[in-house]
UniProtKB/TrEMBL annotation:
Name of the protein in its database record: E2 ubiquitin-conjugating enzyme
The keyword Coiled coil appears for this protein: no
UniProt-listed Pfam families: UQ_con
Catalytic-site annotation from UniProt: 91 (glycyl thioester intermediate)
Source organism of the structure: Aristolochia fimbriata
Amino acid sequence: MAGQTQASLLLHKQLKDLAKNPVDGFSAGLVDDSNIFEWSVTVIGPPETLYDGGYFNAIMSFPPNYPNSPPSVRFTSEMWHPNVYPDGRVCISILHAPGDDPNGYELASERWMPVHTVESIVLSIISMLSSPNDESPANIEAAKEWRERRDEFKKKVSRIVRKSQEMM
């Protein structure tokens, strides 16, 4: 139980810090006030990218042993991106368990470390939207389209951006 208390204290602190010092490009709050381990995050598509002006909602779920293990992040808004699984789960290095990559793609230094915060995670997601990594894609179709049919990729993304603005 001590671990869980530590995790919830840390999450309460991070939530308070974000409320005091909001970060450009996203907002965060709890899905339900009684559960500090489930956050609702809205990422605003970064300027001068294909996602510019979009509002993308995601759920960030923290494990009981946070910050020793990373949270998972899943977009609940429609998303078309090489590093987002078709079910919305975000696939970026810092959300991967700490230590060496069994597949040898990532350095241990690129993976999860307890120093990461909600802010550093969301900033990594914003950076992912700005520059997709199609080397080890989570969404094979989106990665193929990004590489081979960029115009179709752009059309799909702009449709998703428009749809996200209508939902606001």
